[in-house]
């Protein structure tokens, strides 16, 4: 993913910063506890496509 794009992307729900997890191909919003997928280097910033991290609490630490 383009680093310049990562600098300007924010969570579509809370407008907070996102953490890029390259190995999982996702962008994570800690406050919303959502992981947005990155498909073919394109972030899919739709709430309906996001994975909930509520059950992954230790992973967020």
Automatic annotation (TrEMBL):
GO terms for cellular component: cytosol. InterPro entries: Trm112-like. Gene3D superfamilies: 2.20.25.10. GO terms for molecular function: kinase activity. SUPFAM superfamilies: Trm112p-like. Transmembrane segments: none annotated. Keywords: Kinase, Transferase. HAMAP family: UPF0434 (MF_01187). In the N-terminal section; belongs to the LpxK family. Belongs to the UPF0434 family. This is UPF0434 protein ACY05_02625. It comes from Sterolibacterium denitrificans.
């Amino acid at each position: 993913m383009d680093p310049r794009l990562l600098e300007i992307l924010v969570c579509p729900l809370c407008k907070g910063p996102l953490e890029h997890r390259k190995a999982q191909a996702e962008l994570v919003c800690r406050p919303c506890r959502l992981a947005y997928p990155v498909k073919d280097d394109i972030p899919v910033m739709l709430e309906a496509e996001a994975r909930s991290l509520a059950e992954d609490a230790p992973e967020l630490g």
